Amino acid sequence: MEKQLYPWHQKNWQRLQKMGKSLPHALIFHGPEGTGIADFAEIWAQTLLCENRQGEEPACGGCSSCRWFDQGSHPDYQRLTPDALDGESDSGGADGDTGEETAGKKTKQASKKIPINAIRQLHDFVNITTHRGGFRIILIYPVETMTVEASNALLKMLEEPPAQTFFLLVSNQLGALLPTILSRCGKLAFPLPDKAEALAWLGQHQVKDAEIWLAEQGGAPLAALEASETNLNAKEHALLLESLSAPRLVTLLKTAEQLQKVPVRQSIIWMQRWLYDLVSQRQADTIRYHPRHQQTIMQLAAKADLHRLMAVVKQMADRRKTAEHPLVPRLVLEDMLMDYLKIFSG
Questions:
Q1: Phi and psi torsions of 100, nearest 5°
Q2: pTM greater than 0.85 (yes/no)
Q3: H-helix or E-strand spanning residue 140
Q4: Buried b vs exposed e over 196-220: b needs ≥16 C-beta within 10 Å?
Q5: Tens digits of residue pLDDT in 94-129
Q6: CB atoms closer than 10 angstroms to residue 270
Q7: CA 25 from centre of chain
Q8: Residue 10 burial by CB count (10 A; 0-12/13-18/19+): exposed, middle or buried?
């Protein structure tokens, strides 16, 4: 999908305009996935670099600077993301890569981390005069995917910011960042859009059952649109929900085996949403994520041991923090599902 300012971004766009020359040298745009924060950051970066900017409007799209930006070749702009997010194969040496044997040859998976080398390479970029005599922009997304070494290297740059340089950091997990990085950056929160606004936008894109898709994606409209169009892992998701609806040992173990090709992080998110609805149903007689399963959740919530349920919720939050570490998916899933089963035992 082409980058655009979404309706729910307009207030933050106005906030940035009002900052004017008081913009901090580093800004963290933070909020939930699936709401277009990275798109907003790129549009803002292009607007700062635009040579024909008009008032509070986004970049013109037609000047030399904008054409370079759209082609990914602007000399005063650097965008750092994990190779895996860009869909690129590993170009060599990125931290956290793992090897696989394919057709007798060893290949490398695209890294899910931003390595220290990527930050080190910024030094040459920030220490030369800007090509167009204006700003220099560095966008890092998602900033929480930096390795510890990369985070420390970035911190040194933030402590002594180069002249005419803006750092735009995009985060979906603000709590995962170093406190020292947080303290050196301005912050702009991107909450989930209003439900009516999100549904209106999905309606414009002719999404059927938009309210259900939006609920299942936690209120994130871009994620809801993508899910409705691709049904990515839809079969596995349905299988997991079926097993959670009628928790039995044999079924759960079989499900763990069938879901082992789904990214661990995705399985954890699915589990967290189901558990959230159980807690919400038990304590507030309402659910958020699974309107199609409301009756089942009501029945399970009534049977659940609340103390054990809350303990599993906490365990899932801890698991999510390590979801990108090298793990054996089947074993992680088995542990998760066995903990879930205990909520209803005795």
A1: -135, 150
A2: no
A3: strand 136-140
A4: eebbebbeeeebeebeebbbbbbbb
A5: 333 333 343 444 445 677 889 999 999 998 888 887
A6: 21
A7: 23
A8: exposed
